[in-house]
Amino acid sequence: NIPCIASERGDVLHPVQADLSDHYILVVFPGVSISTKDVYGKVTFSQRKEKLTDIIQLPLHQWKTHLTNDFEKYIFQKYPLVEKLKYLMYANGAIYSSMSGSGSAIYGIFKEKPPLEQYKNYQYFVNRPVF
């Protein structure tokens, strides 16, 4: 129950200071299977000026303009439904939303409990983090 940044293959965890305990996190799986191996060969990774550890220290509402997932551009072009879910979360009040890793799950961080009826056609999980 400690927030971490994963590196390497996702198996090396680095604890960070981030308190989202008064927010809800919604994860939605749209049913799209994506091969991480295949996607890595098709994505151009950006050279970031800001460190992830610095970005997550910003107020949550600023993450939208500073925290991006390089896989999204390729995945959204290939699977428009995945992109639609991200913007559905924003339309339903998410403060921040992104694709998880190389996809295809989308998560959103909400101040209030999200309207789950919007996601009834998908597999989803919603919870309040306990850190």
Write a brief structural summary:
This protein has 5 helices and 6 strands, in the order E-E-E-H-H-H-H-H-E-E-E. The chain is α+β, with helices and mostly antiparallel strands and 131 residues long.
List the main descriptive attributes of the protein structure presented here:
single chain, 131 residues, alpha+beta, four-stranded antiparallel beta sheet, two-stranded antiparallel sheet, 5 helices, 6 strands, globular
SSE diagram, text form:
Elements lengths: L3 E4 L4 E4 L8 E6 L6 H5 L11 H4 L7 H4 L4 H8 L1 H12 L4 E4 L6 E5 L12 E5 L4
Antiparallel strand pairs: 1-2, 3-5, 3-6, 4-5
Helix pairs in contact: 4-5
Helix content: 25-40%
End-to-end gap: 5 Å
In what order do the strands lie side by side in the largest sheet? 4-5-3-6
Helix/strand/pairing category: alpha+beta
- Counting DSSP H or I runs of 4 or more residues, the number of helices is 5
What general outline do the C-alpha atoms trace?
globular
Oligomeric state of this protein: single chain
Strand content: 15-25%
* Unreliable runs: none
The biggest beta sheet reads: 4 strands, antiparallel
| SSE string | EEEHHHHHEEE
Number of separate strands? 6
- Integer average pLDDT: 90
Please characterize this protein's 3D structure.
By secondary structure, this protein is α+β, with helices and mostly antiparallel strands. 25% of the residues lie in helices and 21% in strands. The chain is built from five helices and six strands. It has a four-stranded antiparallel sheet, with helices on one face. It has a two-stranded antiparallel sheet with strand order 1-2. Helix 4 (71-78) crosses helix 5. The longest helix is centred in the middle third of the chain and has 12 residues, at 80-91. The mean pLDDT is 90.
